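Recap slide: Helix-turn-helix transcriptional regulator, sequence and predicted structure.
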Amino acid sequence: MEDQTMSGGEINMHEEMRRAFALLSGKWKLEILWLLNQRLHRFGELRKAIPGITQHMLTAQLRELEADGLVSRTVFAEVPPRVEYAITPKARGLGPTMAALTAWWNEHGRSIPPKRSPPRGRQARGG
């Protein structure tokens, strides 16, 4: 890859890419965007679709994505309240990136061993 770090008032692509990576960093953000790229989801649907995510973490990640303009949140005045999350046109611009990642995974995914999830909760000590 070509080093595009520049000085003298020109665009510093290294810094710009760091900003782009920061928008998408977080354990769950890409998975949330992937799901919302398929269709809109309610909060509970997202929580069920992402094993291991806590309610607190899902809320935090959705808030960050919304603040960055990648996810929209619609609240319906119903009892009980209904909230739907959708991907924004800005985030849809990531479509080619998602397609490239899918193609890469289809080619190389089988060569990557699955990670074992650590056990959740407290573990009994042997003794």
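Residues 23-108 form a domain with the Arc Repressor Mutant, subunit A fold (CATH 1.10.10.10).
The longest strand covers residues 71-76.
(End of recap.)
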